[in-house]
Amino acid sequence: MLHTYVGKTIQFEIKYKNRTSIGISINNYGEIEVQAPKRTPDEKVVQALEDKWDLIQMKLKEMKDRMNGPQEKVYENDESFLYLGKTFPIKIIEDTNLTQDHVVFEGEKLAVYVKQLEDEKIKQALKRFYYQKCKELVNKSVSSYQQYFKTKPRSIRITDSKTTWGTCDSKYQLTFNWRLAMAPREVIDYVVVHEMCHMLHLNHDRSFWRLVGKIMPDYKEKENWLALSNWKMTV
Asked: The pTM is what?
């Protein structure tokens, strides 16, 4: 079925089920499904869609952006960057007296202080910020979950990887992708737990996943967040 509202048209499918309320879901392909109680009038279905119209449009745009892949950033005021799962605009401040470019929070913005207004300088300042924050967040998470492990990591490093969120080698050396600082804390915790479990099980066998699930029963939700959001975790 098609429905047009405030100048935009969507296509959706209705499924009538034994339920008491109307539910709306959007799958990874942008297909909209409305589940409604049996004998629900069409006007009530339409009203439910219009009540959630802004959220539906936001989800559809996000899926379209994800399918298009990472978008190139512009290093200008109010460009948005992720931190701990939330989006923050940046504010760029030039200060020729700086000894080092850096980034700090000022209200609800990421203030980027640079000696020169150059894109590469701004980009590198942001990357250093994420490296530092990722190190702090990962160390805190490792300390928090150490209670579940007799073995301790030999070292913890933050790296720039194009293919992995974290690794653990046979010497219990852990590495983590600096982009994790863009993820929610609970997602960072999952990646940390995942790699710490490799200190006991170096492969992904059943024993490994049982241990991960024992420590973090909802770990699949965290995996799903990374799968759906990695395209926008960029600088």
From this structure: 0.74
